[in-house]
Amino acid sequence: MGRHRAPSVPLKVATGHGLHAARPSPGIARGTHDVAAGTRLVSHGNYKHYHWQTYGPLFRDLHKLFDEFAHAVRETIDELAERVRMIGQDPPTLKEMLDVATVTLAGSQTTMREMVEEARANALIVIAEMRRAARTAEEHDDPGTVDLCSKFVQVHEKQEWWLRDILRNGDGLTGGPA
Ligand SMILES: [Fe+2]
Fold first, then answer.
1. How far is the centre of ligand 1, averaged over its atoms, from the C-alpha of 81 (Å)?
2. CA 37 – ligand 1 centroid, Å
3. How remote is the CA of residue 62 from the centroid of ligand 1, in Å?
4. Which of 64, 68, 84, 119 has its CA 20 to 30 A from that of 47?
5. 70 C-alpha to ligand 1 centroid (Å)
6. pLDDT in tens, 60-90
């Protein structure tokens, strides 16, 4: 049985010339956005995984850091999905998002360094997807979505910067469990 999809009804807005059909942006949701949403959904889950799995000398900092990152990513998922609905399209299902996500699922790391390295590599992937989503929205004359993608890519760029600098310092991240 197919799931319910809200009809994609063109918005009616008042103009000086009477009612005018404002066509929803045609291309951002059913492709580029699905990938961007999927990568961020997995990214959120990964950060929570690292948050729960953190150990060692930097436990407090990394435990809190990963939780803050997860929270920031969750906000971007919700806002962009609602933006997609706002412009008359249909956000992807959970399964659709997981099927197209391009980031690595966390779970096989054995050291804190490996977790941070994986988190940084995934952050770079999310950044690339968000930049692609912004370009697609621009190509479809959708400045509102461009604005959101431009704002959210900075969230991921900041996270990648922090993870990169944690790895550069390396303090306490090389040891495994005793
Ligand atoms: Fe927690």
1. 25
2. 23
3. 12
4. 84
5. 10
6. 999 999 999 999 999 999 898 888 888 888 8
Ligand 1 centroid to Cα of residue 60, in Å, is 11
Query: Distance from the CA of 4 to the center of ligand 1, in angstroms?
Result: 34
Residues 39/126, Cβ–Cβ less than 8 Å: yes
Question: pLDDT digits over 8-22, tens only?
Answer: 444 443 333 334 344
Cβ atoms of 68 and 51 closer than 8 Å: no
pTM summary value: 0.79
DSSP 141: T
Distance 121 CA to ligand 1 centre (A): 23
Domain ranges of the chain: 27-169
3-state helix, strand, coil in the chain (%, to 5): 65, 5, 30
Residue 19 φ/ψ, nearest 5 degrees? -70, 135
Q: Tell how far the Cα of 67 is from the centroid of ligand 1, in angstroms.
A: 6
